[in-house]
Design goal:
It is an enzyme of class 3 (hydrolase). With 969 residues, the chain is mainly beta.
């Protein structure tokens, strides 16, 4: 055994004699399979050797919330390339053709990665694979963490992996040619990057075994980890071109020669630059996706943070998972604006990196300008190797050397800024070291201040024995790099008397509060997002604040009022961040949670968006003033209505012909003797869908009623609101409506942020009504709104209506509160006691059961009944037998265990007991909607059967809202 330097790393070379059974080494032969991905459209890609058209799975092949669209193609190294979106794009092929791996095997491909997956469950991102890791057969070519290239080959007894040198990854944002080969004569796997050897591994003295029973997948692992019951992990994200599988062996000279030949065949002998920019047009027509609010070009967004102004531009960053619309693998997205309302997307600013304080995630933080070198970013670094997993880090831009005021490129310092040490004294206890995140940083009079969100607890050893409440820990320094000195807790809430702000404060923000005309007041606002260790029904719903004074000498915040106040009434405004603009305004950004299920996120391809930035100030009466920033008026398009000094009845008449799903509405109304003023938005003519914004003059309460906001049973509804005083006897209302996004601002003192998801295309009307007396409309203006991005706004698309001349399955949604209409065929696991209105299962999160106008409390069948044996109980439940009618499409909500043979809900043909379709729970409690197209069986007698023959963990199944179009007799 000797070693050689390969790509900067020491790589062992094995020169053991070839096995007696080994065949003579053969160079690479003609391909047995080749995918060029040169198609310009369509949902298939052609395998060139056999001519087979292989399907390309893609979330929008059959889109739910927008028009169908094809998988994304871009320019490739030569011709076209296929773009893999990281969570839905996968090619399914039958196999690698006529291939005998005993003669050698070579797989090569061009790739241009967009992002690196975390390596969930230790599995690679698969570029191409046909393997069975349990049986140790087949092959996989893929990427491990931070782009490290790997090739696996199975021999039945061993699954051998060769890794590329860590400093020779498949670089993000550029084309890399990857080749992997099996050499039976040398008993060796070799891995090449751009024609250069980067790794070897020895193999057993036997022939490899293919996994012929497995599909050959391009872009997804054969055994992917299922996240949240919905998302496949271990998938590739980026462009792929020219995937080739060949018999025979690639050696070093041949690899170099082939790569040189590839370059020589390209124009100018240069590899083109890949276009990896996410295009917003991918979501054109999405009926729920906001258009004039800031949001990423796709996938997951959480709180926007680190707003900063520099050289005429506003920058905002945000929590982002580039791999899909789910939480994980958090990066910092980045956008830039000249007015805080019109935005341009910029490249990802920060990504998890091996040599950074955040190899396992770059979580929230803040920004501040450090003189001539420009803004610096403070972030939370996730590192699972640490005892407490979290610390704060620093990143700087290349502006001092590059001069680009877009600030597109950032470098993270390798050393952390502040750590989470054990035993840190904090008020009545000790800082909760396991929760140490979200730095908020500013500089004042030469002193840098850093707030870090945490909690206060008592420890017994390493065990938390008591939780006192949330806090923000104060640090100071003379320069961003530190050293930083701990100064104690800024403030905290006592859980016993003030439980609302939670056990931990996330995203603490401390901003000066100017007066109504911008003058200094000496007051500050402290805002926090509550966090709880266990499931809490109020999690990710509220933002609390105090008004008070920041004592710089004692590093403490002294509130003017002991009880914290809720910033927004709607339970969607969370994750505050803020800064002071050049003209002295204190401006807040926020995330607007969309309250959709994991399945809805997967089907839409995006999750969450930012709220409209708001200005906050101190009113003359000492209360908080809040309104959208003045720049929001720059999004206005054509004025649709201008109404002055009239009755509510006349104003409503003039609104009859005005409609829209992107509107800015301003109103000033004198209630006079009216008891209720109501503005209906997103309303149909028959009121089957409408969202009501109301002011009750008796209760002095402003509220939103979403009980009829959507006919979709999977949409969250409800009523929310709070107390608001009239302003000199007048109701001043501003409403920003952006598809599913709704923000209401009342009297400049309160906000209400919510989401609505109408299903009907005509749910765009406006209505104004008054009850209990005659009110006067002093002003009412409505404007059409333009988009926030430099692209035309595509009209929202809606599904055609389904047949209505059908009946429903008896008690299809268990609204009776029992099993009326259903028959217990056998067992004890199903009974009336299983029908519940519980919104959560107590230890993890919400069911997200159906909410309909007939059953607003949300009855559903929870298969786990602790009084009847829990998971160990079994049984069979059957619906009434009916004749399938309408369009033959059956759908239901299902969750619970993942056992397709013993635990399922099925549609069964009555005459012969044949199962026509079945659904399983995927080992999650949160419901997902399953749809069966049984149009071929229209007119047949069918029933729904729920089967539980499973015991032990996850031995139960849950169902709700079983929709069967029943032919009327």
């Amino acid at each position: 055994m000797v070693s050689a330097a390969v790509g900067g790393a020491i790589v062992p070379f094995s020169f053991a004699p070839a096995p007696a059974a080994a065949r003579e080494r053969r160079g690479p032969q003609s391909p047995t399979a080749r995918w060029d991905f040169d198609e310009r459209a369509g949902t298939v890609t052609r395998e060139a050797v056999s001519g087979t058209a292989d399907p390309v799975g893609y979330v929008f092949d059959d889109a739910r919330f927008k028009p169908d669209s094809d998988p994304v193609r871009r320019r490739g190294v030569r011709g076209r390339a296929l773009y893999f979106d990281g969570y839905s794009t996968v090619v399914t092929a039958s196999g690698p053709g006529k291939l005998d791996p005993a003669d050698g095997l070579t797989v090569d491909v061009w790739i241009a990665p967009y992002a690196y997956e975390h390596g969930i469950d230790g599995k690679p991102q698969a570029l191409v694979n046909q393997h069975d890791p349990d049986a140790k057969t087949g092959f996989l070519l893929g990427l491990r963490r931070f782009g490290q290239l790997v090739f696996q080959l199975g021999f039945g007894t061993d699954l051998v992996e060769v890794k590329g040198a860590p400093d020779q990854p498949a670089a993000k944002g550029r084309w890399t040619h990857v080749a992997a080969t099996y050499d039976p004569a040398a008993r060796q796997l070799r891995l090449y990057r751009d024609g250069r050897l980067i790794g070897t591994a020895a193999t057993p003295d036997k022939a490899p075994q293919l996994a012929s029973d497995e599909p050959l997948l391009i872009g997804r692992h054969n055994r992917p980890t299922l996240l949240n019951g919905e998302f496949h992990a271990n998938m590739y994200m980026g462009l792929m071109d020219s995937l080739v599988i060949r018999p025979g062996t690639l050696d070093d000279p041949t690899a170099q020669q082939e790569h040189g030949d590839r370059l020589a065949a390209l124009p100018g002998r240069r590899v083109p630059r890949p276009d990896l920019t996410p295009h917003r047009s991918r979501f054109d027509g999405d009926r729920h996706r906001p258009q004039f609010h800031m949001l990423p070009p796709g996938h997951w967004m959480n709180e926007p943070h680190a707003p900063v102004y520099f050289k005429g531009k506003y920058h905002i960053f945000y929590q982002h998972d580039p791999f899909g619309p789910y939480w994980g693998q958090i990066h910092w997205g980045h956008a830039v604006s000249t007015d805080m309302v019109h935005w341009r997307d910029l490249p990802i600013a920060l990504a998890p990196a091996a040599d950074s304080p955040g190899p396992d995630g770059i979580w929230s933080g803040s920004a501040y300008v450090d003189g001539d070198r420009g803004p610096v970013l403070f972030f939370t670094g996730g590192d699972d190797r640490l005892p407490y997993r979290q610390r704060t880090g620093l990143a700087v831009s290349t502006y001092p050397t590059g001069g680009d005021t877009d600030l597109p490129t950032w470098t993270m310092k390798s050393e952390p800024v502040t750590e989470a040490p054990a035993g840190l004294p904090a008020g009545p206890g000790t800082a909760w070291a396991e929760n140490f995140r979200d730095p908020f940083v500013w500089e004042e009079d030469g002193v840098w201040y850093q707030l870090v969100g945490s909690g206060i607890v008592d420890y017994e050893g390493t065990r938390v024995t008591k939780k006192h409440g949330g806090t923000a820990l104060v640090y100071t320094a003379r320069r961003p790099e530190g050293p930083w000195k701990y100064r104690g807790p800024l403030h905290w809430n006592d859980l016993a008397t003030q439980p609302g702000p939670g056990e931990v404060w996330e995203l603490p923000v401390l901003l000066p509060l100017p007066g109504p005309r911008g003058a200094r007041t000496g007051k500050h606002i402290l805002l926090v997002s509550p966090w709880w260790e266990a499931f809490n029904p109020d999690a990710v719903k509220h933002t609390y604040y105090w008004i008070g004074t920041f004592d710089k000498r004692e590093y403490r915040f002294v509130p003017d009022h002991e009880k914290p106040r809720e910033f927004d009434f709607g339970e969607h405004f969370t994750g505050p961040s803020g800064f002071v603009t050049p003209d002295g305004r204190s401006v807040l950004f926020s995330i607007t949670q969309d309250r959709r299920s994991e399945q809805q996120h997967a089907q839409s391809g995006w999750a969450h968006n930012a709220g409209m930035p708001v200005s906050v100030w101190l009113r003359q009466d000492g209360t908080l003033g809040v309104e959208p920033i003045t720049e929001a008026t720059g999004l206005r398009g054509r004025r649709l209505a201008r109404i002055r000094q009239t009755s509510v009845k006349e104003a409503n008449r003039r609104l009859t012909d005005i409609s829209g799903d992107m509107l800015d509405i301003e109103a000033v109304i004198e209630p006079r003797d009216a008891t209720t003023i109501t503005l209906a938005v997103r309303a149909t003519a028959d009121d089957s869908e409408q969202t009501l914004l109301s002011y009750d003059t008796t209760e002095r309460r402003f509220s939103i009623d979403r009980g009829h906001s959507s006919l979709d049973p999977d949409v969250r509804k409800g009523v929310h609101g709070g107390t608001v005083e009239l302003d000199g006897g007048r109701l001043r209302l501003r409403v920003l409506l952006d598809r599913s996004m709704l923000e209401a601002y009342v009297n400049g003192t309160n906000t209400l942020t919510s989401r609505v998801y109408p299903t009907r295309e005509d749910a765009t009307g406006l209505r104004l009504t008054a009850e209990g007396g005659a009110a006067r409309v002093l002003e009412l203006d409505v404007w059409r709104m333009n988009g926030a991005y430099d692209a035309p706004v595509a009209p929202a698309a809606y599904d055609p209506p389904r047949p209505t001349d059908v009946d429903a399955l008896p008690n299809h949604d268990f609204a009776t509160g029992d099993l009326t209409g259903w028959t217990v065929v056998s067992g004890t696991t199903f009974s009336d006691a299983n029908v519940t209105t519980r919104p959560d299962w107590g230890w993890g999160g919400p069911f997200y059961q159906a909410e309909t106008q007939d059953d607003a409390t949300g009855h559903h069948l929870w298969g786990f009944n602790p009084d009847a044996g829990g998971d160990d109980a079994t049984g069979v439940l059957r619906s009434a037998t009916v004749t399938l009618g309408g369009d033959g499409v059956v759908d239901l909500l299902v969750s619970g265990g993942n056992d397709p043979d013993r635990l399922y809900a099925a549609v069964v043909r009555a005459r012969d007991g044949k199962v026509l379709a079945k659904a399983i729970g995927r080992a999650v409690e949160q419901y997902r909607r399953v749809v069966f197209d049984l149009s071929a069986h229209i007119g047949e007698r069918i029933y729904v059967e729920v089967v539980d023959r499973a015991t032990g963990g996850w031995g139960h199944i849950n169902i709700d809202d079983v929709n069967v179009p029943v032919r009327r007799q």
